[in-house]
Amino acid sequence: MIFVKLMQKNIFVFCYRLMEEPAAYGKLGLANLLELREECLREFHFFDAYRTIKQRENEASLAVLPDLLMELDSLTEDMRLLTLIEGVLAANIFDWGSRACVDLYHKGTIIEIYRMSRKKMQRPWRASERKHNIRRVDNFDAFKERMLGSGDRKPQPHKRALLFVDNSGADIVLGMLPLARELLRRGTEVVLVANSLPALNDVTAMELPDIVAEAAKHCDILRGAAEAGGLLVDAMSNIQDGYKEDTPSVPLMVVENGCGSPCIDLRQVSSELAAAAKDADLVILEGMGRSLHTNYNAKFKCDALKLAMVKNQRLAAKLVNGNIYDCVCRYEPAS
C-alpha cells in the first residue's frame, strides 16, 4: 500500500503530515490505522511487543485444557456444539487491543476471567440487559442444523474448514482449538489461518505449531490430525491421556495469511492461504478485527460463520444497538 511505503521512507514526515492533514493519503479506515500502528512498531524494532504476555497466557490456558476437553466429551452432541460456540465467544474477551478488556486483567487471572465470561453467556448472545430494539445477531440454530441436521436427516460434514484465529492464550487454546477438534472429529479437514507477523496479542502462524503440539499431548484427536497435517513429525505414542479414540485421517494444518494486522483484507492474502481456500466449504472468522471491522458484510461462496465479542462501545451501538461485551454469531449458508 502507498501509505506504508511512504512511511518506511520517512516515518516521521509521514506521521507529522497525517496529523496535520488527515486526508493527505486518502481515506484511511480502521484497518489502515491498525496496520500503520504495527508498521511503526516494527520500524523501531518492536517486532513482537506482546511476546512474553502471549507465552504466559498460552501456558496458563494449556494447563486447564484437559479439564475442558473432559467436560466437552461428557456432553451430548447438541450441548457440546453449543458449549463450543459459547467457549469461542467467551474466550474472545482476551484482547490487548481493547482498553476495556485490558482493565479486566487487573481484576483477575486469565482463567478467572474466562470462567466469568463463560458464565455470562446466554442466548440471544448478549452479555448486557435486554433491549426491545436490539438487533440480535444469533444464528446458532441455523449453524447447528447444518452441522447436526434435524430428525433422521444427517448432513454430510464439511470437507475443509478455514478457521481464521485471533488472539493467543485462552482465545486460541480454550476457544478455537476445541472447535477445530470438533470439526476434525466429524471428518472435516481444518486449516488454522493466522497472522504472518505479530500484531497486538494475536497468535501467529509461527507460534501455532508449538501450541498445537502442547495441546495434542492431551488429546488423541488433535494428535492424529496434527501428525496427518505435518505439524508433528514424531508420533507421541508414549503420552498417556484419557482421550483414546481412533486417529482421524483428516489433517489439521496451519497457514499464514500474509497479514500483520488485527484486521484482514481477503483480497490480499498469502499464496499459501489462497491455495488452501480452493477446496474449503466452511470459513470461520473469529474476533472483531477479522469478522466485524472487516468482512462483516462479506459474502462467501461457501458456508461462513462469524464469531466475535464486541469490545468497543461505539461499535456495539452501531452494529447491534447493544453494549460492550455483547456477542455476534452470524451464520450465512453458501451463496
From TrEMBL:
List the molecular function annotations (GO) for this entry. ATP binding; kinase activity
Q: One Pfam family of this protein, by short name?
A: ARMT1-like_dom
Q: Does the keyword Aminoacyl-tRNA synthetase apply?
A: no
Species of origin reads: Capsicum annuum (Capsicum pepper)
Keywords, ordered alphabetically:
Kinase, Transferase
TM stretches of this protein: none
> Per the entry, which co-factors are needed?
Ni(2+)
A single BP term in Gene Ontology: coenzyme A biosynthetic process
Taxonomically, what lineage is the organism? Eukaryota, Viridiplantae, Streptophyta, Embryophyta, Tracheophyta
Name of the featured protein? Pantothenate kinase 2
Q: Which InterPro entries match?
A: ARMT-1-like_metal-bd_sf, ARMT1-like_metal-bd, Type_II_PanK
Q: Does the keyword Transferase apply?
A: yes
